Structure formats: C-alpha cells, structure tokens
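User: Sequence in, structure out. Go.
Assistant: Echoing your sequence, followed by the structure tokens.
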Amino acid sequence: MNLRFASLLVALLAPISARASFLSGDALDTAANWLSWFILFLVPVVAIVGFLFVHVLPEKIAEKKHHPHKDSIKVLCILSLFFGGMLWPIAWLWAYTKPIGYRMIYGTEKHEDFYLEKARELHEGKLSPEDAAALRADLAAMANKAPLRADLQLLADRLDTLPALARPPAAVPPIVTRPRSAEVPAGTES
C-alpha cells in the first residue's frame, strides 16, 4: 500500500511538460488568427443563408404542390422575416393544408399556373390522354363555378378539338347495393 501511495505522489509531483495545444509560438498565433476570421465572417454568412433557406421552405412547398394560395404564402414568408420568424409556422401549416374551401368556390385545388404547365405539356405532346381527360374535367368544373380566364378558356377549347379526346370518358357504372336479406338464400339461414 505504501508503494502505491509513493508512486502516486511521485507521479503527481514530478515536473511533466504539459501543453494545451499541439502548436506553439507563431504557429499558434497564426492558427488563432485564421480561426477568428473564420468565426467572424464565414459562420454568420452560413447561418444567415441557412436561416433564409429554411425560411422559404413553405413557399417552395406551396409551389411544388401548386397550392392556389402560393402567392399569399410567399408574402407571409416575407412578413415573417420582419417579425422574427413568428409567422413562419403559420406559413408552413398553410402550405400543407388542402384548400377545400377554394375548391368549393372555384372548382379546383390547384393554382392556375398548374393548368398553364399542362397546356405547355399538351403543346409539346407530352400530355397523356388520361391527364388530358382529367384536365378537361377540372376545367369544366372551374367553368361551372366562374368564367375561365382567357388563357384557360383557350386551353379548354384546344382540349375539346383534340380528336382522341372529343368524347368525354365513359361514366363509371354506379355501385348497386342489395339489402342484407337478398344476399342469403332462403334455405340456408341458421
């Protein structure tokens, strides 16, 4: 026991050369200068760019989903910058909501840019017949609610003149349900 204590005492009291850094002298000063410049200039720039990237995410999501209120969501993101980000969660939630009320009023859940993109696909010949039929149905629903804009009306007229799409798609037959008593034959009841 005394031998352990003595070796511990010698280890603690013995002068050992200890350094806090692997650099020394001028190399330590140079490294500290470069690190300070990095922290003072590059870190804030990266933080600001990261903050702005996260801040415009609701706008990008709304554009990707063709949300009919994407312009309002963009304005809310800009306003949120001036209010310290407090409005950002509202913009995020709004970008992910399904515009049910908008569909009831206008007959669609998509921004008008969506239909203009589909018109460009139709012009380039990239629009499938199923997509064209769905586009025609959407434009008809929109026309039933309110008059179409001139460019959307031209798209609807062009869809009506296509030979493969001149007929509306066949209606799906209704599902016929029978009462429960008609399903079980008369002699098999238990």
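User: And one key feature?
Assistant: The mean pLDDT is 79.
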